């Protein structure tokens, strides 16, 4: 090793590694890195990744990947665990929680195998952060306390401070404000000797949260301002963004509106430039409050709309990520349980076999000396056979239990999928419009809106209410169809009358886009199906035709019949669909969350098409689609006719009704 590299490692060993305390100079490490090889290079790569992972994630990720590859080549378990820890933390900062869990869990297993308590303590903080994202604060606090205990055993001050800050943060989420204050102050006292501005900044931010929750605005401002100054000194923009909206909120509560406005507008610029969506959402929320207090209705409405849009997007993503992470953790725990069970079985069987072998050897030797022991050997052998039979019986029981566990796991997945669909619909299509209506009504009742301004917004509110009503009706129908005991009641009715009623209900949508409707159906079109289900089908197909039509287009409706079926068709001149989109819509795997926006930015969840497919199938019919991008869409619905239902010629339809 060259002398500069040797001197550098002497410097590193003089100071214990942890978090951000006693950070090595990254420029110095980069200067000697090209000359380093083997384990020396592996150590430098890991130190660089740890120092940069909060400030330059892409660069830290690059160094971590090289460290992981080099550790694998050298067979260095501890170096690999450190590289995987950094990769897991970077994925956590990027919001990819499932990958973060996988890398952190693997790194923890390697640390335990190598009895590295310091590395295990660091990874307890990674795993605790994932429990924090699951909103399981009690479990998160337990993980961070384990990390603190392990770090205390090996005397690693930085990991102790990091663990204490995380414990304090989680106590603020459980309203344990006094406990949060106590742990944060302890972190500051320990950090007096480490000189880490980042960790002290974190402690001050947590204390600011506590003071704000206790309505002590002056103290909260002082803590946030101190935290912000330290974050800017360190150049950690993600942490700076986390402090900005908190300080702006404190200014707003203290009636310092000008300071709050200046700080929050800067926060918008910083968050948009760095794609910090969560902090950006909170900043828009506080700006809406600020402009509402100032009486600037237009700006308040703009920031309220941006908050609702961002919050809606973040909530949907968070729900999906939490569900994926929960499933991953469940599968990991299930695998661990199965491994422990198999291990116990093998140990039990090995013990029994070893015992049997010893008895056989003993009595074989004794048989040469004492013939009477031959009888004893026979009895013992019989006992062994009985024990093996018992083992086989136990093994079969275990296999049955494993099958039952797999069945329960599949049922849990189906329940989670159903719950996720409902949450997606309620969160995406109901919460946003209702919150916007409430916001405008609250401002009107509070006197912040003039009647003329309220009248201008009334059209938007009416459109939101219509959207909520349509989605709620679809949701109720879909929920009923998923319940056990859902019955289909086919009867004769006039399909044209159902179509005309639906056209009347959807008249505002057609009128808004100035669409021309041509209804060329026969005077009376009788079908044999469940009228309630077909009304939902007709309304959703006509609504989609309006949704994806361009302004001043036309929509044509007509019907045909043969001896067995009635064919009802709706043709529009809208944006059309590709073959891949048609196949996705008609497939069983079509997802509720993949619906496209309409030509006038109309939102949807895809539930209407799911209902259409389901109810047509339950009525013994069939759905088909003809479309090309930019050339409109033609949707055909085939339903049993009166004649075919009476003559028993629609056997397929009746079989599907029974199903």
TrEMBL record:
It catalyses: ATP + protein L-histidine = ADP + protein N-phospho-L-histidine. PROSITE patterns: HIS_KIN (PS50109), TPR (PS50005). It comes from Algoriphagus oliviformis. It holds the Pfam family HATPase_c. Keywords: Coiled coil, Kinase, Membrane, Phosphoprotein, TPR repeat, Transferase, Transmembrane, Transmembrane helix. This is histidine kinase. Residues 388-422 form a coiled coil. One of its GO terms (molecular function) is kinase activity. Residues 425-643 form the Histidine kinase domain.
